[in-house]
Amino acid sequence: MKKYIDTNRSLWDGWAEINKNSAFYDLEGFKTGKNNLNSIAIEELTGVSGKALLHLQCHFGLDTLSWARMGAKATGIDFSPEAISLAKSLSEELSIPARFIKTELYDLPRFLNEKFDIVFTSYGVLAWIPDREKWAGLAARYLKPGGIFYMVEFHPVLGMFDDDGEKLEYPYFHSLKPMKFHDSGNYAEPDNKFKHDWYERFYGPGDVVTALIKAGLKIEYLHEFPYSPANCCKFFTGDKPGRYVIKKYPNLVPRVFSVKATLE
After folding, report:
1. Would you identify the CATH topology of the domain 2-155+200-230+256-263?
2. For residue range 144-196, what is the model confidence (pLDDT) as tens digits?
3. Residues with Cβ < 8 Å from 176, sequence gap 6 or more?
4. Which residue among 62, 102, 105, 236 is least enclosed by CB atoms within 10 Å?
């Protein structure tokens, strides 16, 4: 397990450097006031002003800082030192009050002992979680009674396709042993020459909902969407502004799902 986590942490350190300069993240646009949150999260997670919000796996903090701009008392955590360092510098540079903590996800209780109104996580986080039930328990641990857990994530069906989005290559169902990958570039800059190994797991909506229920949360909804609000796969094409679908299968498979749950 340590090998998987250490390898992935090194990967995300490298990706933080790529991502901060990418058009995908549009850091300069964010600095001039652009909200980094995609449409689904903004429409579904409302009323954040004045609420204490914990963002798990926040990368370099643009979503966290976007919630803070909307009035949330935001805390972001991530295991990448490079990403957290950048998040802290952006918070200071832009005078957006937010707290950032560098820690491996399951070590968070060593550094944080308080409750939140909202626990949030989004897009591309599940693949890096070694234990979904431990993850769900952590989310529940940090919620106040009546607090909201909200996540929006790419649908695991997307992970089944080959690199060209032409055929199915990878399994849908979760396995205990992660899959190893090695490639250059990433979702933000596919042509970047940075190369690295990494390890991923796949979890479906059923895995997520079951883990949250076991952690004591009440599921309010599970939504699936036929589009992605982010153009993060080279086999995506836009069918409307802010809506991206698979070129070969534009109307056949889900691209994103969201879950809202509460702690009673």
Report:
1. Rossmann fold (3.40.50)
2. 999 999 999 999 888 888 888 888 888 888 777 898 989 898 989 988 999 99
3. none
4. 102
For residue 81, what are its two tokens? 């030192």
Q: What are phi and psi of 6, to 5 degrees?
A: -65, -40
- Taking only the tens place, the pLDDT of each residue in 48-66 is 999 999 999 999 999 999 9
Residues 72 and 210: their CA atoms lie apart, in Å, by 28
Q: Where are the domains of the chain?
A: 2-155+200-230+256-263
What are the residues whose beta carbons fall under 8 Å from the beta carbon of 45, sequence distance 6 or more? 118, 120, 148, 150, 260
The answer for residues whose C-beta is within 8 angstroms of residue 180's C-beta and 6 or more apart is 197, 198, 199
N- to C-terminal Cα separation, the chain: 33
Give the C-alpha distances (Å, rounded to integers) separating 77 from 26, 49, 106, 167.
21, 20, 11, 36
